[in-house]
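WP5 quarterly update. Target: Glycosyltransferase family 25 protein. Source organism: Rhizodiscina lignyota. Length: 418 aa.
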Amino acid sequence: MTENKMLRVPRNYLLYLCVVAVFGVCWLWLSRIVPRARVPAVGTQNNGASFERWEKEIRNETLGFQKILCINLPERTDRFDAMRLAATASDMDLYFVDGIRGEMVSDRVLPLGAEKVLLSLGQRGKWRAHMDALLAVVQENLTTALIVEDDVDWDVRIKSQLVQFARGASVLTQPLRGSRPGFADPSFPNPNTKVEADSSQFEIDMADAPETVVPSDSPYGDSWDVLWLGHCGTKFPEAGSWPSTPLGRAVFRNDDTVPQTQHLGAYSHLAFEYSTDELQQTYPNHTRVVHHAAGTSCSLAYAVNQRSARRLLYELGLKKLNAQFDLMLSQYCDGKDGRQYHNCLTVQPALIKSHQPAGLKSSLSDVSTDDDDGMVLSDPFTNHIRVSTRINLSRLLEGTPTLVDSFPDDEPPTNFDT
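Structure tokens (predicted):
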């Protein structure tokens, strides 16, 4: 008969098991309340497979931002409906921020300097509406947000265009990959390193772009303040005129979403904007360029992050009012008129433009008071957008396979009837 023997466990081993058990319980409890930090992908290619995770985010319902905010006057139900349908057709999700009538903005709330600026009631209301949009970003603690006005339009291929824009933005502002120090743009981040040379020194052909570190915080890079995606015009920065602004250009050639050059400046009078002469005269057909903002106008669409939303709300909403909103946003970006420079990226041609539906031209703007003498637009129009979502809205909703190209290749500019 065998004798049953009790195994003795050393006391120090029991103590070890207790410590492990306590540590395990604490780890499980903490893991439920503290989110794991995202580990940045260090040393990966901008144009490699590791960028795919960001590409998926850009193709989501908020275009890679945490939220898309659309400013809309409540009485403009026509614009509300149109924007909601256009967003639905593009698989995008919008949150609306109420526009403000200028009569509702008291003189007492205007920042220092407003007494010297002749803002129309429309411009006054627009300023406050954009402040409210920035305030929403701050209050909701959004990491990033795209702010758009309610009359905008975009190409049906906007998500692919934004993937391209993100690659350009990263090449301009992300560090070079591997052991190579610095950035692809020799004038970034310190414009004082600029050398006297033609602009080609700062051009980066995106067909042969250097590899850069994949962003860790946003698909569009880790250091931007504003992404000015929708505007009425901008300029390529030059060393003499824009001393604080880096000169780099990310050049995308053979982009068939860009109209041929004969269409680029042909409709400026109709679209309330200055022409894209620099782009038209410098680059061949179907070229899009991502670069740092300089002298940009119209706040049709721009993205902010939490840091820049707070800065803008203070700078333009509390500290000083010396122009209409979009011009102050340009000052904020360019570091002019007593404001500090900030890292703002834009693109030519713009990816988001103002849409003009058929009908009375006087109904197009809630800011301008011009009545246009009863001028009627017989055809809808969006400048620079080839396959317009708004112009093709009925086809998109019906599932029609063929869409209208507003600016066909090898055709002269259209004579839009007004």
